[in-house]
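Q: Got a minute? One more chain.
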Amino acid sequence: MKILEDQKIQDNTVGSRSKIDYAYIAGFLDGDGSLMLQLKKRKDGVNKFRFMATICFYQDSRHENDLYWIRKVIGIGYTSNRNDGMSELRINGYKSVGNIIDILKPYIKFKRIQAKALSEACHILSSTKFKMLNYTKLIKLVDLVLVIQNENYVTKRKKTRSELLQILGLTP
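A: Always. Here it is, folded:
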């Protein structure tokens, strides 16, 4: 993944092009992006639910080249065009999202709380298989979902803490 390779360069070079690129991408994320940690239903497998970590950048489709540039710099993600004239770049996966957030975190200003929570959740989820998550880690993940959810602008009702705990079977 390109962003991880550039991290080595970034750490050793003051004022490097990669630092400028990452600062620009973080600013773009602050203004036209979102950080999400969701509990999604599964149709297959033993577990009926899974956590999903996502970074999403939004742009008017007339200017979607900016999204392709971001994708090229970070080396991962997929773009799509929506019916409302908007395009998005989405990055999913605990390890990828966690690594990208960790690199962008020093430059993120407005979504700092969400970035910290999403990074923590991704590190928990990428280091432990879902079925091996203990009660303490599941409670922590629920709390991190709520931190991100409460900081984000939402257009529809999200699940409450008690609903999330019930879904995960953590209520008596």
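A: Helices lie at 2-12, 17-32, 65-74, 94-104, 112-127, 135-151, 161-167.
Q: Perfect, thanks.
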